[in-house]
Amino acid sequence: MKGGIYTKERCPLCGEKFVRTENDLRCPIHQTRPRRVYLVLYSKELAKHMKLYSDSHGIPFSSYEQADRILTKIRAEIDAGSFDPSRYVPTKLKPLQLTNYAEKWLKDREAEVEKRVLSPSYLKELRRFVRIFQEHFGPMDIRDIGTRRVKEFYLSLQGSPKYISNILSALHKMMADALDYGDISTMPKFPEFEIPEADFKIIDLDQQDQIISSIENPMDRAYIFFTARQMVRPSETRALFWEDVDFKYDRVTIRRHFSLNVLRETTKSKRIKILPLNLEVREALMRLPRHIRSPFVFQKDGLPYLESYARKLWNRITAEMGIDISLYQGTRHSSATEAVNRVGMDVVQEFLGHTRRTMTKKYARVDVDSLRTVFREKKA
User: Do residues 300 and 219 make contact, with C-beta atoms less than 8 angstroms apart?
Assistant: First the structure.
């Protein structure tokens, strides 16, 4: 391959052209050097002259020595058949720098949220994760992110195993998309590690009833009561329409949920659930006022009930009672755990609408009293 190092500049002192010496470009009179140089390449493989003004990281050639190192590297790549001109052309290189690539990938995910393919809450998490990608990898070409780079990224992450797993899953998705688009040729391997079982808190149902009965406002009390007894997600309770409640046959249809403040016409599990309506819940719903222009069962002045308000209310009441447990764990999770021990996992899996048994298994808790038979009884 033929190649050379050139400059368009002239000596700033005398205006004469820079002259090539053995390993440099200089003004023969003032010994000044150009501030910018470029490469010109030609070979049978390229079939044309090619000018390069920066290296594979997009850094402009600012010295003869720098350009000469890259020229030697390119010659070796051409001989090995691995030379890729796009790695040295800024207009083609910049879109593949991770900082830019991740930003474009995130915009595509935003478009999917607009089309209701992805949830706003998922997008919120992706934004956080993409910033972490960008801070770590910077302008690195995504084609250079191999297994070693991924492992280094994994080792740099701080937080719980579940949090780290979520970040890696997002990066894996972005790299898998890059592979599908043809932007990378091979998929790096991602580290495998176990995520410890989450330690969920639960309360017994007597405590749960005590907390709910302490809520004075009928709408507030009914919102939390429905979530606890029907064992649905708070975001699904919030999205309940009056048309979803069948008082004639005592059943309720869970067909939508809120993701942040966006109403989505599907449940989180993508399954419509038709559940029997608990009789005490039925009585509580019958006593609720209806808004003439709002379809929501749980509302404040016609606007959908705020889940954040319910969490604050729950936290205040439980704190006053000396109980430390979240709204989700104190309602749906505690009720489901009690139900698994009482009626079995299969029934509860169907009731909760879980697509996999492992999702329901997290609600199973060992019946400690049943294990007492293991102890050897002292003889009289």
Answer: yes
Task: Give Cα separations from 88 to 26, 83, 97, 334 (angstroms).
Answer: 25, 10, 12, 59
Average pLDDT, the chain: 88
Query: What architecture is domain 205-361?
Result: Orthogonal Bundle (1.10)
| Sign of CA pseudo-dihedral 31, 36, 40, 45 | positive
Q: Is the pLDDT of residue 44 over 80?
A: no
Give the model's pLDDT for residue 13: 92
- pLDDT surpasses 90 at 10: yes
Smallest CA-to-CA distance from 227 within 122, 303, 319, 297 is with 297
Q: Cα separation of 225 and 314, whole Å?
A: 11
Sheet holding 50-52, edge to edge: 2-6, 38-42, 50-52
pLDDT of residue 60: 87
Domains 97-181 and 205-361 share a fold: no
Give the number of residues written for the chain: 380
Q: Is the pLDDT of residue 63 over 60?
A: yes
pLDDT tens-digit profile of 103-113?
999 999 999 98
The tokens for 77 are 């790549």
Per-residue pLDDT reduced to its tens digit, 30-40: 999 999 998 88
Structure tokens at 242: 């009056």
Fold type of domain 97-181: DNA polymerase; domain 1 (1.10.150)
**Taking a C-beta distance cutoff of 8 angstroms, is the pair 102, 174 a contact?**
yes
Burial of 57 by CB count in 10 Å (0-12 exposed, 13-18 middle, 19+ buried)?
middle
Cβ–Cβ < 8 Å for 314, 192: no
Is the pLDDT assigned to residue 364 strictly greater than 80?
A: no
Please give the full DSSP string across 76-110, using - where no structure is assigned.
HHHHHT---GGGT-HHHHGGGBHHHHHHHHHHHHH
Asked if residue 40 lies in contact with residue 3, where contact means CB atoms within 8 angstroms, the answer is yes
Report the distance separating Cα 7 and Cα 25, nearest Å: 8
For the chain, the structural domain boundaries read 2-89, 97-181, 205-361
